[in-house]
Amino acid sequence: MTLDWIFVTGSVTAVAAAARSTWSPCGLSMLSSITPFGERNRGHRYGATASWFVAGGVAGGLCLGALCGLLALVVSGVGLPSRPLAVSIIAAAAALAAAALDVGLFGDRLPVVRRQVDDGWLARYRPWFYAAGFGWQIGAGVVTYVMTAAVFLLIVLAALTASFGAAVALGALFGLARGMTVLLTSRAHTPSALHELHRLLDRIGPAVKSIVIGVEIAVAAVALAERWLVPGIIIGTAAGLLTLTWSIHRRIPEAPLTGSAPVVKG
């Protein structure tokens, strides 16, 4: 298995995990707190605050990537890259486990971490500090609400690159994608526009969750197909159908986390 293959699947997973994480209480709170009219009322410029948030997200992603990089060095040190079959099996198992967790096969295990950032920062600190601080915590991936097992799949794939630089890059990509979500509020110049944005997020949330599960299954299929083309395709298709069937069978709607424009709490 090549580094390029793992890096590509890791990149897709990073973006998918970041997108799904938007529906965490912290993610939704950021979309309620950092808005053009909110920053204007606090005497700040939205563009500058949003920029600091994105920068903080990248910084948090770099920290996550550094942690993954250390794991990648361990993977390289034990010689795992020289055993492509083992790498394929680990990647596929991690991806299928992530899909099973996200679809609820083992019960409602998510979100794993249930920590939120401190909304008191909005009143106590300058905009560059609270925006960068919020961005870092969200970009780090595992220090606030973890809404999808794709975050953990990302860590596994980053470690399997066996490259410190590649792992850091994957973490930075995740942090950048998480930070960029704040720009969803760039057109929310009034409370009614913000409420409309949250209603839109309510509507598309289940679809985004399904897409992320699909990405996880696709990663498993590609990992298996790397070593066994036909079995990988068959297993990936079967896993996708079983996941879809289980999801329809449960018919458990996602808990509404928007609507009332949540506010971050410590």
What does this molecule look like?
This protein is an all-alpha fold and 266 residues long. It has helices at residues 3-21, 25-33, 36-41, 46-77, 84-103, 121-124, 127-139, 150-160, 164-180, 191-227, 229-250. It has one domain (3-250). 71% of the residues lie in helices and 0% in strands. The longest helix is centred in the last third of the chain and has 37 residues, at 191-227. It is globular.
Structural class: mainly alpha
H/E series: HHHHHHHHHHH
Number of domains: 1
Calculate the terminal CA-CA distance, rounded to whole Å.
43 Å
Helix content: over 70%
> pLDDT below 50 for ≥5 consecutive residues: which ranges?
255-266
Number of helices: 11
Task: Give the DSSP E fraction (strand runs of 2 or more residues).
Answer: under 5%
Radius of gyration: 19 Å
Number of strands: 0
pLDDT averaged over residues:
86
Per the principal axes of the C-alpha atoms, what is the gross shape?
Answer: globular
**Largest sheet features:** none
Features:
single chain; 266 residues; mainly alpha; 11 helices; 71% helix; globular; disordered C terminus
What is the topological layout?
Layout: H1 3-21, H2 25-33, H3 36-41, H4 46-77, H5 84-103, H6 121-124, H7 127-139, H8 150-160, H9 164-180, H10 191-227, H11 229-250
Short description:
The chain contains eleven helices and no strands. With 266 residues, it is mainly alpha-helical.
